[in-house]
Amino acid sequence: MGCLIMKKIFSIITVCVICIFTFTACNQSTKEFSDVELVKWGEADRILHYSLEELEKDCDIAVVGTFVGDSTQDITYQYSDDFGKEIILGVKSFNTIEVKQVLMGDINVGDTLNVSQRYGVVDDRLITMSELTPMIKGDTWIFFLYNNYDSGIYVCCGDSDGRYPLPNSVNKTLAVTKFSNLGVYDELDFKSGIYSEILEKYDI
């Protein structure tokens, strides 16, 4: 069941609540990330991987793929009597990747995969529970994915453990982080050791 069998879990529980007056649901284009405030909203439970072997064991498929559309998002919210406003309970975005190369798993070149990530854009704020940068149309990455609860929606295994750049790819530069070429907000979240193993094993 992919990453459902947990080996090591960390959880940061946030007591902050993000309040908004209106609910915004829309397609996300690159320009939305040029002038937004980054709001790190805690982190979801995830497995930490320390080797490619661990990552491969927990994922269902591994591919090189390209985001083919603008992301859509789902913001879970409800009215709070305490705050007298709508409050955000959860953020999630969705996109589709087209498979360019198969590294492992029962998948073919040209197939498309629906993927999700825990972030959303609300009122010029990029609210994220993911350490990965947003899913941008045209960007190409190496993905290690698992089928989330067999729903047909794939998730990067271990969040930032499960997505890496191609050595020669040029992805969008985002103002919210100087590490957008690595696909993370903080360089410490990029597993350079696993990345080196991937490039060597799969001759990328």
Written description of the protein model:
- The relative contact order is 0.21.
- This protein is 8% helix and 39% strand.
- β9 and β10 (125-128) form a beta hairpin.
- It has a five-stranded mixed beta barrel. A three-stranded mixed β-sheet has the order 3-10-9, with no helix packed on it. A two-stranded antiparallel sheet has the order 1-4.
- The chain has helices spanning 52-58, 192-201; strands at 9-12, 19-20, 37-40, 43-47, 61-67, 72-80, 85-104, 112-117, 119-122, 125-128, 140-147, 153-156, 163-165.
- The chain has 204 residues and is mainly β.
- The radius of gyration is 17 Å and the shape is globular.
- Mean pLDDT is 84; it is low at 1-25.
- The chain starts with 8 loop residues before the first strand and ends with a helix.
Quickly list its features.
204 residues, mainly beta, 2 helices, five-stranded mixed β-barrel, 8% helix
At a glance:
With 204 residues, the chain is mainly β. The chain is built from two helices and 13 strands, in the order E-E-E-E-H-E-E-E-E-E-E-E-E-E-H.
